[in-house]
Amino acid sequence: MAKLPDSILTNIFTLQRQIIESIDATTAIEFRILEQWGETSETLSELDELQSIRERLLLPYSRFHVLLLRAAESQPFAPDDVLNLLYRLIESAEATLSASIASLQEIKRNWNY
Question: Are 8 and 68 in contact (CB under 8 A)?
Answer without folding.
Answer: no
